[in-house]
Amino acid sequence: MKKTMTFAAALLAASVLSGMASAKTLVYCSEASPANFDPGTTTGGNDFDASSRTVYSRLVEFKHGGTEVEPGLADKWEISDDGLVYTFHLHPGVKFQTTDYFKPTRDLNADDVVFSFDRQFNKENPWNGDKYLPNLTWDYYTGMDMPKYVAKWEKVDDLTVKLTLTEPNAPMLANLGMDFASIVSKEYADQLQKDGKMADFSTKPIGTGPYQFVDYQLDSVIRYAANPDYFKGKEKIDDLVFAITPDATARVQKVLAGECDITVYPNPADLATVKANKDVTLMDQAGLNIGYMSYNTTIPPLDKPEVRHALNQAIDREALIKSLFQDAGATPAENLIPPTMWSWDKDVKTDAYNPDAAKKVLEAAGLKEIQLWASDRARPYNPNFQRAAELIQADWAKVGVKAEIVNYEWTKYRAEGKKKDRPGAFQVGWTGDNGDPDNFFATLFACSAIGVSNYSSWCDKDFEDLIQKAKKTSDQAERTKLYEQAQVIFAKEAPAFLLAHSQVYAVVRNNVSGFKMDPLGIHRFDGVDKAE
Amino acid sequence: MRTGRRNFGAAPFNSTMLRYLLNKIALLIPTLVGITICAFAFVRLLPGDPILAMAGEHGVAPARYEELKHQFGYDLPIWEQYARYVGEVATGDFGVSISSKRPVIEEFKTLFPATLELSFFAMIFAMALGIPAGIFAAVKRGSWFDQSLMGTALVGYSMPIFWWGLLLIIFFSGYLGWTPVNGRIDLQYFFKPITGFMTIDTLIYGKWAAFRSVLRHLVLPTIVLGTIPLAVIARQTRSAMLEVLSEDYVRTARAKGLSSARVIGVHALRNALIPVVTTIGLQVSTLLAGAILTETIFSWPGIGRWMVESISKRDYVVVQSGLLLIALIVMAVNLIVDVLYAVINPRIRAA
After folding, report:
1. Is the pLDDT of residue A493 over 50?
2. How many whole angstroms separate alpha carbon B251 and alpha carbon B198?
3. Is the pLDDT of residue B5 over 60?
């Protein structure tokens, strides 16, 4: 009876509400304030959620909820046989947003695309330096090695853009789906430059994305409205609001109280409360990251794969993950890349716990002592290096290996750890950028990364051939095959102990539909709807 | 602050006050220099730097790191960086945020009203409850009320703000649903700020429902931020009152046959309030410290939260200039309290 009453009351309230406000409003409780709204100049995930994923679009986009690349502003593209020239064909009739601070007079064209990239590297471009904003660093453009790979951007005609590379690089396409590659309006930039208000470019954004910017109250609320001219069709949500809520427990309480519809990064301690609540859903997914421990494969006896396998087998990984991640949980890593990434090979398994077998091998190899590295910083893929080190130390003691824990502050830790001749086992991890397997395999285990980010100093010819070939191949099906083979070799050679991919969560009210967890860690509101 | 009770001799009121003021202001200069050094050194002593913080997980290639260090001027000798900073601040240039690229002073101006508004309400809350409670406890000295009040005050004083805030949110907003979880105003209300004080802005726009929403949002953060000052004020009022109640003139007043209410309310209270005013002035710094946590929990867009986020981003410019601005305000308030003290304390005014 009580239930029916509540239902009736809710129905009444809903009808009154919908009578009052016909506009559909979606409130997202975001975790931090954006630095600004120009995605070329920022690096934080919260910056990108508030700018590139709402206001802007790119030539190519990541599939919603996946890491595959699909058409964006470019309807289609051709890649030359030598892999050096990319020709993009722009969607015709794409309109930039019309707001009270900018009225576009023309549609998106090749000039906008060329300008969007040129401003990030061309020192002659007035938008590259201090004239626009002080101390610009263009971190992602340089961080993704764009200056090394890009030879030039050219306008062929209004709707055709040509990108020429210095050498073949298949992950380039995924780079162009990243936030820094958002396409901005040259017409808007020119207008602001003429009016002497260049800094407005970062505070009053104009893009071609699903939502257009309305207002930002510093550290408090960001408001957007559906872009009526969105080239993929107007969104169902009329008003999108970001309520900036830095405290994780308060964020969850806000969703439970109905003050927000969606939030992310809940406190692990609050997960049980969320699960128990009938009005909200807890969504989870393995994050685009990997926690692992690199063995220096050049120093005996760690140069022998069987010794590395034995060390892996000696670790009770399930207990370790439970102790480290506790309520938050984590997906045990079978491969270097997380299961949400394309080319992940489901048949490859990492070493299972088997201390007895491990002991025999380690005794035979004569491994009695080993250095085990730990740092002070909590990372998404390993919340407590020190605790992990202590547990691994205890496991290894059981098989007769005495581990000495080496500690450094995080910055120095990585500087020391990446040295070619660093001894022992080094705990580290990685959070991916663009969802391309190359971003994991080549960044972390290419021969050229030794001394940089290949903490295992591991250079395996077969593995290297496969990942280099995959880097130069444009066809994704073929690349998938190559990466699958690479994963088999990785599992056989065991240059590292694979820990886990940390779990990421979102708390969503049940009347919200279409919200998807994104393996890239971005939060998108296109395609989201809300029942009143 | 009994040290504040100074005897300035029999000089005329105006010149005494002036000398007193100049003295106080002269003392501010070395304090200010000290604060610039502390603010400058503090953020640099933390491990990590803004360049690494910006690069995030990705890290940054050594060559690029050196290049960026040069671009930001962090490759200069430390004393030169300090001289630059002081030189800029001296000319009123508080710099531009490393992460947001906005002028620090502009961000400060936008955010400060929120902190001020919350602090104001927290202070009103603390005084409105603390002073009567302290008086009552003093009058009923040794009673169960006095005992339990002082016990509660000690608990309040030791309360971890973070825990207290979350507890109130979970109970009042989550369980009972009486108050909004956090924020300054319901999201349905949307207007351009005029003064930056939501209570005033909503009234200027004449939106009563919005004004009520602002008050509802103020309840929990006011209680959380006001808890420690409340405890301090209650205790201070009680002890000041006890001291005064044992003075000769109070006995005289009683002997004259005045009513108890008049003795306490007029004769005793006026004198007991003098040290309480100083206490209240000193609580301003407590409020600003408490604002850091309160603003974080309650999503309150003020300067406390701004500082926390800037420290985590190692935004040297915001931290060093922001701390200086906050210190300036605390110093200004203390100066005002000193003057006020001189005004209300007859022993300073015309001894």
Report:
1. yes
2. 48
3. no
Q: How far is Cα B115 from Cα B107, in angstroms, rounded to an integer?
A: 13
Q: Which one of A44, A203, A253 has the shortest CB-CB distance to B174?
A: A253
Residues of A in contact with B51 (CB under 8 A): 137
**Within its chain, how far is the Cα of A106 from the centroid?**
33
Is residue B335's pLDDT more than 80? yes
pLDDT digits 0-9 by tens, A231-244: 999 999 999 999 99
For chain A, say whether B329 makes contact (Cβ under 8 Å): no
Spell out which residues of chain A touch residue B100, defining contact as CB-CB under 8 Å. Answer: 35-36
Q: Tell me the per-residue pLDDT of A84-134, one tens digit each, with 9 for 90 and over.
A: 999 999 999 999 999 999 999 999 999 999 999 999 999 999 999 989 998
Calculate how close chain B gets to A33, using CA atoms only, in Å: 9
The C-alpha R_g of chain A, in whole angstroms, comes to 25
Give this complex's ipTM.
0.84
- Give the three-class secondary structure for A305: helix
What's the pLDDT at B13?
54
CB within 8 Å: B100 and A36: yes
From chain A, pick out residues whose CB is under 8 angstroms from the CB of B64.
Answer: 142
Query: In this predicted structure, what is the pLDDT of residue B238?
Result: 93
- Measured CA to CA, the distance from residue A86 to residue A46 in angstroms comes to 31
> Is residue A244 less than 8 Å (CB to CB) from chain B?
yes
Contact between residue B317 and residue B96 where contact means Cβ atoms under 8 Å apart:
yes
What is the pLDDT averaged over residues A178-201? 96
> Of A505, A503, A523, whose CA–CA distance to A514 is shortest?
A523
Residue whose C-alpha is closest to residue B227's, from B291, B273, B275, B183: B291
Instruction: State the pTM of this model.
Output: 0.86
**Contact residues, chain A, for B182 at CB < 8 Å:** 245, 247, 250, 254
Cβ atoms within 10 A of the Cβ of A480, count? 16
Rounded to an integer, what distance in angstroms lies between the CA atom of residue A147 and that of residue A166? Answer: 10
